[in-house]
Design a protein that fits this description.
Helix content: 25-40%
Low-confidence stretches: 107-116
CATH architecture: 4-Layer Sandwich
CATH topology: Purple Acid Phosphatase, chain A, domain 2
Structural class: alpha/beta
Number of domains: 1
Radius of gyration: 15 Å
CATH superfamily: Metallo-dependent phosphatases
CATH class: Alpha Beta
Number of helices: 4
Mean pLDDT: 83
Strand content: 15-25%
Shape: globular
Length: about 130
């Protein structure tokens, strides 16, 4: 399974658009199936037009190819981003997604300290081995 990882990406800057173009070109030699976003997805204002300028347009080549993005929230992200359809979080702070024969965990939290206990319980409940 091939996938790409990005983080601190949501500035809407020229360099973000260039990275989006490069990622689209890279798929011809490294055909990744999805993208994991590590957080700080949208900096500054988060109006609907900001999601277009800071996510949809920079990654339009990948989105046109139906490459899904799976987001985690960072410390600069509003928790309501979990409702943005193209981040595939389905309104959840913690979620998993399945690709191929396996399940890929993604841990979502805006601030690790307050949610650490909740995230650990959630992870342990889904782990195939015991947590200690």
């Amino acid at each position: 399974m091939l996938f790409a990882i990005i983080g601190d990406s949501g500035t809407g800057s020229r360099s973000q658009y260039q990275i989006g173009e490069l990622m689209t070109k890279t798929r011809t030699v490294f055909p990744f199936e999805f993208v994991i976003m590590l957080g700080d997805n949208i900096y500054g204002s988060e109006r609907p037009q900001d999601f277009v300028q800071k996510f949809e347009k920079p990654y339009q080549g990948l989105l046109a190819e139906k490459i899904p993005f799976y987001a985690a929230l960072g410390n600069h992200d509003d928790p309501t981003q979990r409702y943005y359809k193209l981040f595939n979080m389905n309104g959840e702070r913690f979620y998993t997604f399945k690709k191929g024969d396996g399940r890929s965990p993604t841990f979502i939290t805006r601030s690790i300290r307050p949610a650490q206990g909740t995230a650990r319980k959630w992870t342990c409940a889904r782990a195939s081995s015991r947590c200690s």
